[in-house]
Write a structure and sequence with these properties.
single chain, 191 residues, alpha+beta, 2 domains, two-stranded antiparallel sheet, 4 strands
Length: 191
């Protein structure tokens, strides 16, 4: 794992990023064997050729708030109860795109140093942490929840979770989510 690119470089012009080296890439021996459609000696040879011969690198980039990014209700599409579904608009800005280019260059230099062959780059994917949707703050006109994640104007409603993160860092948000959950739980007990 490398955090070197998170703090260095032209940070005013591009997002920081974290490079993570994966423990494995490609399929497990079972997946390789299933996909091989072979038996006996050919199967053993295929597993030996494919398993453990791939490297994986994953990159996490920070994301700044964008005015275009929002969650609204789509009244044209409804769920099974007839309620409008959420419509998420997410735009990757020029700051993030410049980070993607810098990250791609850094990762390709790592693979070049390894003398890797058949280097492939995936498309940009969203991470597994669900963030955003309701801003945290002290002003009810500019935010949805207070610092305990209690909804402004609704004393019996807390929106605990990553929804109060309006930006995403290159770093994993889990510890901050845990700290906020503890703060929210303490507020619930006091209430």
């Amino acid at each position: 794992m490398s955090r070197d690119h998170a703090a260095r470089g032209a940070r005013d012009g591009r997002s920081g990023f974290w490079i993570e080296f994966r423990n494995r890439a490609g399929g497990t021996p079972g997946v390789v064997a299933t996909d091989a459609h072979a038996w006996g000696t050919r199967l053993r040879q295929r597993v030996r050729e494919q398993f453990g011969r791939r490297a994986g690198v994953r990159v996490f980039l920070e994301s700044l708030p964008q005015k275009e990014n929002r969650i609204t209700l789509d009244r044209r599409v409804t769920d099974t109860h007839g309620s409008p579904v959420a419509h998420v608009r997410y735009h990757i800005g020029s700051y993030e795109r410049a980070g993607i280019v810098a990250a791609s260059t850094a990762v390709r230099s790592i693979y070049a140093a390894l003398r890797a062959t058949e280097v492939r780059e995936s498309s940009t994917l969203l991470a597994a942490h669900l963030l955003g949707g309701h801003r945290m703050g002290i002003d009810p006109r500019a935010s949805v929840v207070d610092d305990t994640q209690r909804a402004h104007g609704h004393p019996n409603l807390w929106l605990a979770g990553g929804g109060s993160f309006v930006t995403a860092s290159w770093a994993n948000p889990t510890l901050t989510l845990v700290a906020l959950a503890i703060r929210t739980a303490d507020a619930l007990v006091r209430a």
